[in-house]
Write a structure and sequence with these properties.
The protein is α/β, with parallel strands linked by helices and about 325 residues long. The protein is about 35% helix and about 25% strand. Coenzyme A binds next to helix 2, helix 6, helix 8 and strand 12.
Length: about 325
């Protein structure tokens, strides 16, 4: 049988503090009704001062290991847009917090598509025999990137982390990762960006502009590009896996906006009910979004053993992708 990376454990973690739409409406020109109707978001979780992405990632990783019944991994990949520091990467800190010893650990920066990029890298490492067990984590303290006065981003994003443990197995097992399709278009870099803090700003010799410290997004352009690219990528991943769209039991898309998820389902010809949705509870958690939605779908019973699951995301870069997996047989995490 064809070898494949197989999902052996799932874990999700969000910080305890909840920020409701009404709380945001007290300090921004927005309303619960606008946020719910335009995005589907009712609340998001936000880190307390001093808590960082590596804290969230380590907890999600710990839960994925526990779910798998293991206490070690020999490779850690962290997808994040909000690393603890610009240098070094966050993944070695996560590996240290998990007590994994001197394992290889690195970050992937592909914004909201980051988890799919990390999934492909983790699956490839398993298939190449470079690692027995890989922790693939998406983690964000995204609130730390947001301008407190920008209502167009402050209402959308939230903090959290999700993780999968991958092991070597075969393509006929529940949990198999079948195909991951990835793409990018750097001409769209300005649509989703934190302009400052990198070489571009430092080499410009110009003083730092306050607004460049924060995340910015051209929401409308992103909306249409996201729907188109996620649908296209999904069709590519499905055809390379040999699945018809009608065979997809669950669509777990990047939780950017409920309207985007429903539009992608519609373009694929899937009933809206097949989409797993937790954006109402957690907002857009960028790289953490897909694994948090997977942990949610497992907890609610929406994801069942052997379900054919389609994952898809679009994010800064621009980057996008889609993946096909069959759902594993795991205890509740
Ligand atoms: N509260 C109230 N009004 C708001 C608002 C807020 N938080 N944010 C924007 N508005 C206003 C705008 O100023 C605009 O007002 P105007 O008509 O007077 O100019 C109006 O609401 C509509 O704004 P628009 O940006 O056209 O709204 P939209 O329907 O496109 O929704 C997003 C905005 C961000 C929710 C939506 O574009 C989106 O989800 N984009 C994609 C995000 C995404 O996919 N991200 C993935 C990668 S990170």
């Amino acid at each position: 049988m064809t070898r494949a990376a197989v999902i052996a454990g799932v874990g999700g973690h969000v910080p305890a503090r909840v920020v409701t739409n009404d709380e945001l409406a007290q300090r921004l020109d927005t309303s619960d009704a606008w946020i719910r109707s335009r995005t589907g978001i009712a609340q998001r979780h936000v880190v307390e001062p001093g808590v960082t992405t590596s804290d969230l990632a380590a907890e999600a990783g710990r839960r994925a290991l526990k779910n798998a019944g293991h206490d070690t991994a020999d490779l850690v990949i962290v997808a994040t847009t909000s690393p603890d520091r610009p240098c070094p990467a966050t993944a070695p800190t996560v590996a240290a917090k998990l007590g994994l010893g001197e394992v290889p650990a690195y970050d992937i920066a592909a914004v909201c598509s980051g988890f799919l990029y990390a999934l492909q890298a983790g699956a490839a490492a398993v298939l190449a025999g470079h690692a027995e067990r890989v922790l693939v984590i998406g983690a964000e303290a995204f609130s730390t990137l947001l301008s407190p006065t920008d209502r167009t981003t402050a209402v959308i994003f939230g903090d959290g982390a999700g993780a999968l443990l991958l092991r070597a197995g075969t393509a006929d097992e529940p949990g198999a990762v079948h195909h991951v399709h990835l793409a990018s278009d750097g001409t769209m870099a300005d649509l989703i960006t934190v302009r400052g803090g990198g070489a571009e700003e430092r080499s410009s010799g110009l003083p730092v502009r306050e607004e460049d410290r924060y995340f910015r997004m051209e929401g409308k352009s992103v909306f249409f590009a996201a729907v188109r690219r996620m649908a296209q990528s999904s069709l590519t991943a499905l055809s390379r896996t040999g699945w018809d769209t009608a065979q997809v039991d669950r669509l777990v898309g990047h939780q950017a906006n409920t309207r985007i998820l429903h539009a992608v389902a519609e373009q694929l010809g899937l009933p809206a009910e097949r989409a797993v949705i937790n954006i109402d509870q957690v907002g857009n958690t960028s790289a953490a979004s897909i694994p948090l939605a997977l942990a949610h779908g497992m907890a609610t019973g929406e994801l069942r053993t052997d379900d054919r699951v389609l994952l898809t995301a679009f994010g800064g870069g621009a980057t996008w992708g889609a993946a096909t997996v069959t759902w594993p047989d795991l205890p509740p995490s």
